[in-house]
């Protein structure tokens, strides 16, 4: 029989499960053992277990293989530990890597605490985030440092600010100066967006000189994926620029009245782009990406409203976890980026469904050729909720034709590789950072078990809530996911009450 929820959600100062021992939410024990775990190590290898995973000072120090018969008969000699998580019947995966995160302080002019986003990310099993287009670099750097010291709950942050922030650099010399300035401030990489070819070439050259990795959101502009490839980009974000580089005439067949700054136009005709790409030219582009070592972070989930608006607007977790700032931002409003669903038609959705089929086939072919595919959510826009968006991204990678073991690899090992950190993050392996998620059930059989809210199923003729991540261990610090969710629900309820009172 399951313990009542009130007994599970005890205060942080005491163990949170009867079968767990001395595990305190948000407190790193000197030595933590995760017992009896089935392990998906992130490499693409099959699950194996049971194992005891030993963690000390934020690092995995031992993986002890266990005899299942000895475990069943309770005659296993255990490595002693100060705290224990019982993972019997559970699967342990590496913490997930979100390659396209935004840590926003407000939406639609309404304050939104960063604590909200950080806790949702942890609840979704995300232990590393590449934060793109950081607009308050000094603030986020201080927050990152506090997370690293264990003072604030949150995933590890890699900061990639945009080089086109204000004042906007207008010459190659100004672009180079901006790159050097950001390097001097200690950034981890750079995001490129909306640049003419001469400025982009200068930006890539200077980034290479400064040893900075790059993520490129290629707009509908002078450049395309081939320019980014020649420049030495680390990863192409979304899909912009890839089909563009394969167009017969070098430009999409827009109607005469098309206006890129009108987001209804922009996204409506984005849904018609992939069908215009020449298959032979597209193959050449994908091959060039692979040969140059360019990774692809397709962010499939963020555009899903374009193919199924009703699904996007009615996601079940909105009820308890949608902050009123996001709720306001998501309402159709041309003033808010991505909130463009005004007169969105069944024809638009039909085009976008076809767009997805072609896009997914390209991502699949890219990996078949040897390319590295990662996962990112771009949440905070277009009905995408932090954390939940990345988990939906995993589902869409499976829809694209990847086996679930490969999907997990995309979200762990590949993410670490794109960050240049594959020697310390992204795997359940001795010597790697203790970034781990403990899942109720087998996510290889159903990726939806990763949703922190779990899934509904029938047991004994009754509808029950099952699955969900039980624990997220970030840098050796265990966070009890039900407690994180409770804290987010309370934060959202308080924000809604304040807004209702205004």
In the CATH scheme, the class of the largest domain would be Alpha Beta
Strand content: 15-25%
Q: Which range best describes the helical content: under 10%, 10-25%, 25-40%, 40-55%, 55-70% or over 70%?
A: 25-40%
Low-confidence stretches: 1-18
Backbone structural class: alpha/beta
Mean of pLDDT: 94
- Whole-angstrom Rg: 23 Å
Please describe the biggest sheet, giving its number of strands, its sense, and whether it closes into a barrel.
8 strands, mixed
CATH superfamily of the largest domain: Metal-dependent hydrolases
Between the first and last Cα atoms, what is the distance in angstroms? Answer: 45 Å
Indicate how many domains the architecture comprises. Answer: 2
Count of strand segments? 19
Shape: globular
Number of helical stretches of at least 4 residues = 17
CATH architecture of the largest domain: Alpha-Beta Barrel
Written overview of the protein:
This protein is of the alpha/beta class and 502 residues long. It folds into 2 domains: 20-94 and 427-501, Urease, subunit C, domain 1, CATH 2.30.40.10; 96-418, TIM Barrel (Alpha-Beta Barrel). The protein is 34% helix and 19% strand. It is built from 17 helices and 19 strands. It has helices at 5-8, 68-72, 114-123, 137-148, 172-184, 197-210, 225-231, 263-270, 279-291, 309-313, 318-321, 324-330, 346-368, 388-399, 404-411, 413-418, 481-501, and strands at 31-39, 48-56, 59-65, 83-86, 90-94, 96-101, 106-107, 110-111, 126-132, 156-160, 189-193, 213-217, 235-237, 295-297, 436-440, 455-459, 462-466, 469-474, 477-480. Strands 1, 2, 3, 4, 5, 15, 18 and 19 form an 8-stranded mixed β-sheet that branches. Strands 11-12-13-14 form a 4-stranded parallel β-sheet. It has a 3-stranded parallel β-sheet with strand order 6-9-10. Strand 11 (189-193), helix 6 (197-210) and strand 12 (213-217) form a beta-alpha-beta unit. Helix 14 crosses helix 15. The longest helix has 23 residues, at 346-368. It is globular and about 75 Å long. It starts with a helix and ends with a helix. 48% of the residues are buried.
């Amino acid at each position: 029989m399951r313990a009542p929820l009130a007994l599970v959600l005890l205060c942080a100062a005491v163990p949170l499960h009867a079968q767990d021992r001395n595990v305190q939410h948000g407190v790193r024990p000197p030595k933590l053992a995760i017992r009896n775990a089935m392990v998906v190590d992130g490499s693409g290898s099959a699950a194996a277990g049971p194992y005891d995973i030993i963690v000390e000072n934020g690092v995995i120090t031992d993986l002890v293989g266990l005899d299942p018969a000895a475990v069943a008969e309770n005659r296993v000699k255990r490595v002693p530990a100060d705290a224990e998580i019982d993972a019997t019947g559970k699967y342990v995966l590496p913490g997930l890597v979100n390659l396209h995160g935004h840590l926003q302080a407000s939406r639609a002019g309404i304050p939104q605490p960063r604590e909200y986003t950080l806790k949702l990310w942890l609840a979704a099993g995300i232990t590393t985030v590449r934060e793109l287009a950081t607009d308050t670099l000094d603030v986020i750097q201080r927050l990152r440092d506090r997370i690293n010291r264990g003072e604030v709950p949150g995933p590890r942050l890699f900061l990639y600010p945009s080089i086109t922030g204000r004042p906007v650099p207008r010459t190659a010399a100004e672009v180079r100066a901006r790159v050097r300035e950001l390097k001097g401030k200690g950034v981890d990489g750079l995001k490129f967006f909306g640049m003419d070819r001469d400025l982009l070439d200068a930006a890539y050259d200077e980034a290479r000189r400064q040893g900075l990795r790059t993520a490129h959101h290629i707009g509908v502009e002078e450049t395309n994926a081939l320019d980014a490839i020649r420049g030495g980009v680390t990863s192409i974000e979304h899909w912009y620029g890839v089909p563009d580089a394969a167009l017969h005439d070098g430009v999409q067949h827009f109607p005469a009245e098309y206006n890129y700054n009108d987001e209804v136009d922009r996204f409506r005709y984005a849904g018609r782009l992939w069908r215009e790409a020449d298959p032979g030219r597209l193959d050449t582009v994908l091959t060039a990406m692979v040969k140059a070592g360019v990774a692809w972070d397709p962010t499939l989930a963020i555009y899903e409203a374009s193919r199924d608006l009703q699904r996007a607007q009615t996601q079940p977790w909105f009820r308890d976890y949608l902050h009123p700032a996001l709720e306001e931002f998501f309402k159709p409003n041309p003033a808010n980026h991505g909130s463009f669903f005004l007169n969105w038609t069944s024809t638009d959705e039909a085009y976008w469904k076809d767009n997805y089929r072609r896009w997914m086939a390209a991502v699949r072919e890219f990996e078949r050729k040897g390319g590295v595919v990662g996962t990112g959510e771009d949440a905070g826009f277009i009905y995408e909720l932090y954390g939940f968006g990345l988990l939906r991204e995993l589902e869409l990678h499976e829809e694209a034709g990847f086996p679930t073991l490969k999907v997990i690899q995309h979200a762990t090992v590949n993410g670490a590789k794109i960050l240049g950190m594959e020697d310390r993050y992204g795997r359940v392996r001795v010597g790697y950072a203790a970034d781990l998620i403990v899942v109720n059930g087998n996510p290889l059989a159903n990726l939806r078990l990763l949703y922190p809210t779990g899934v509904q199923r029938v047991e004994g003729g009754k509808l029950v809530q099952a699955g969900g991540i039980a624990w997220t261990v970030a840098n050796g610090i265990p966070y009890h996911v039900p407690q994180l969710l409770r804290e987010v629900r309370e934060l959202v309820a308080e924000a809604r009450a304040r807004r209702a009172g205004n």
